[in-house]
Design goal:
The protein is built from 18 helices and 21 strands. By secondary structure, it is of the alpha+beta class. The strands form 4 sheets. The chain has a 6-stranded mixed beta sheet. A hairpin with a 5-residue loop joins β4 and β5. The longest helix is centred in the N-terminal third of the chain and has 19 residues. The radius of gyration is 24 Å and the shape is globular.
Amino acid sequence: MNDFSVSQKHYLEGFASGLAALHQFGGSTGTDVPSGPDAVHFAAQQRTIDAGRKLADQEKWKRAEHPFDAYTRLKDQAGADQFPKPDDNFRWRYYGLFYVAPAQSSYMLRLRIPNGILTHWQFAGLAKLSAQYGGGYTHVTTRANMQIREIKAADAINVVEAVQDLGLCSRGSGADNIRNVTGSATAGIDPQELYDTRALAREWHFHILNERALYGLPRKFNVAFDGGGRIATLEETNDIGFQAARVANMSQDEPQIWFRLILGGITGHRDIARPTGVFCKAEECCSIADAIVRVFVDTGDRTNRNKARLKYVLDGMGFDAFLERIEEKLGRKLTRFDEAQVEPRALCDRSAHIGVHPQKQAGLNWLGVALPVGKLEVAQIEGLSAIARDMGDGDIRLTVWQNLLISGIPDHRVAEARAAVEALGLDWRATTIRAGLVACTGATGCKFAASHTKEDAMKIADYVDARLEMDSPVNIHLTGCHNSCAQHYIGDIGLIGAKVAINDDGDQVEGYSIFVGGGYGENAKIGRELWPGVKSEDCLDKVLNLLRAYQQHRTDASESFQAFANRQDPDELKALAASLSEAP
């Protein structure tokens, strides 16, 4: 082996591992009975091969060597200050590490923070790690999570292990795994909530961490628990959503609060999770989610990455047949209620994630802090941590709206906490535009993005706020690519990055296609395209004049932008906006 290069050795090791796996599972005949936690995945892969279909490259990489069996090589690469080849770039995402070249010649580390809640000292610890190993800042994500960026190859292991020292982890936060578990941001403190989701998110989080069979799925997977609080959890955008609901006419020995099961959300593919008719008790959520994932392991597409999400299993199999498979896994029937028996849920408050709001605990409040499209500098993290420690209950609560809440602030300390936030260069107030502004990492840190979304989002906010005072909530989402991490399809106005031709020679500039009329919660809807391929600088005027048209032509002040946009013919809406055109 000494005559081979490192890459050749790596190839031979993987090839040998693949042969061993093939032998273990009976080769192409599949005659041997698989064993071990990875057996179900090998068996699903083998069925694909036996059917004469070709595995996707990622499936081959998983088959050749499971990422969790390659930790030593990850350490060796860090020791040699080397970034990974494509196969290991995929594998290291199982540890939360994303090599994001060519956007940045560095790693990004994505964490796991169940229900988005961490302690003040964990939050401060992440500030220290981002200063020591990263670029001196973090991003709050649309899964109520955090990312550390600009990590050197040599620090890959250091940062993964240091995060674990904080009582956090990054295991399975990328690649074909179950992503960060989201729950209600105000769980346990919300006067409106039906159920405190913290224990449910924690149970599912630890179930995932300790069940290796739930890694290496056909594709990534999202699960969310919504307790019916004032801040939307966006559970309808997840593969599995659990919605707390009150069921009427239950006997005394049955719970009043159940969880409605919804399935198949993936807004990047223009689909929102749909009700199944199934309801479950809180203590059943974890086992039902486990069964759903295992059916997905058995039936998901291992050949086409674009069709490998749960949505496509449901499209092909149908909901009824899929639920039958879940019942087979569980060994029992699922509970179903007629929706007429289920009480309507209270509406979300689109401004509850910003500013001061009373908790259900008398005399205490949560303070929602506006973050500029989710970005936080080290000094700001440290300052917010100190506010939570000294003036609150010690918790930091991240939201799916790319901001955070500080909970447990006594009435007599609210003014002090607000002033402390302002002293950090942040604010607890936001215009309606900034409160509903969501943007993915964009081309600054993601190789897939066609545009610089975070920067363009701030330009839009500055441009609109300088020219128009909005009197009703509006969500503007900017996403850089088809993965739709910022969920542009559910924004009142959604922008997806695009390269825009500027002449007949093939020259292109950054831009966006613009969508309108999307929504979430009780108004869940996929937006429709209004303008394809608009140059970035021209988007400023397009967005401004859409909002002007809304204010001038809505039926009354109670009509939402979504309702206004969806009652207009697209050509009429474009004409209204064009009539108000103002050059940027």
